[in-house]
Amino acid sequence: GDFSGQLLAYLSLGPIFIIVGFVTLIIFKRELHTISFLGGLVFNEGVNWLIKNVIREPRPCEEAHSAVTTKYGMPSSHSQFMWFFSVYSFLFLYLRMHQTNNARFLDLLWRHVLSLCLVTVALLVSYSRVYLLYHTWSQVLYGGVAGSIMAIAWFAFTQEILTPLFPRIAAWPISEFFLIRDTSLIPNILWFEYTVTRAEARNRQRKLGTKLQ
């Protein structure tokens, strides 16, 4: 009968939905930066596992959650995952995606709204781990700090080290076989894909109209 607990339990499944979303996006888009983002999330989880097994701080109520995969709780993997995802997405929105059209106000507005949503979800997922007795406040706090630091470091690594290599990687025969592409030089991939798709649709519509005459 605890509606809040049920809602927070569903929210705590956020990392699973995000991973599924990334896998789906990679299958259909096959873009190197998206693959790098997922690689960062996986690396972040590995760092979390390492820290947990070094500190070995138990969860607040081990007997209440016997089905968890590890008995250690410092730092919270959910909190670290969500803050990595949120902070990296925030950096991507404001530093990687630049405006390419005239709708300056709307462009900034949707970025601010999306950033606020990302932070809100990260806060709610972190809170859910305490509410559901999986973690203490300190475990959630340190998880958030670790995830944020990892996100900043991985974003810098991607921008400074990996991005210059993307054109070369995209030219590999195996990359061409799997249609893996590099869009790092395109400031706003959403706007680019929209304009290219619209232009191609109009071009095909004109050709079809010519054939029917």
TrEMBL record:
Annotated transmembrane regions: 7-28, 81-97, 109-128, 140-158
Reactions it catalyzes: a di-trans,poly-cis-dolichyl diphosphate + H2O = a di-trans,poly-cis-dolichyl phosphate + phosphate + H(+)
Major location category of this protein: endoplasmic reticulum
One Pfam family per UniProt: PAP2
Subcellular location field: Endoplasmic reticulum membrane
Stretch forming the signal peptide: none
Family annotation (SUPFAM superfamilies): Acid phosphatase/Vanadium-dependent haloperoxidase
Pathway: Protein modification; protein glycosylation
InterPro entries given in the database record: Dolichyldiphosphatase_PAP2, PAP2/HPO, PAP2/HPO_sf
Topological type in the membrane: Multi-pass membrane protein
Domain of life of the source: Eukaryota
GO cellular component assignments: endoplasmic reticulum membrane
Keywords, comma-separated and alphabetical: Endoplasmic reticulum, Hydrolase, Membrane, Transmembrane, Transmembrane helix
GO biological process: lipid biosynthetic process; protein N-linked glycosylation
EC identifiers of the protein: 3.6.1.43
Location of the Phosphatidic acid phosphatase type 2/haloperoxidase domain: 34-155
Gene Ontology MF term list: dolichyldiphosphatase activity
PANTHER family, sorted: DOLICHYLDIPHOSPHATASE 1, PALMITOYL-PROTEIN THIOESTERASE/DOLICHYLDIPHOSPHATASE 1
The protein's role, per its UniProt record: Required for efficient N-glycosylation. Necessary for maintaining optimal levels of dolichol-linked oligosaccharides. Hydrolyzes dolichyl pyrophosphate at a very high rate and dolichyl monophosphate at a much lower rate. Does not act on phosphatidate.
Similarity comment text for this entry: Belongs to the dolichyldiphosphatase family.
Protein name: Dolichyldiphosphatase
Organism (species): Aegithalos caudatus
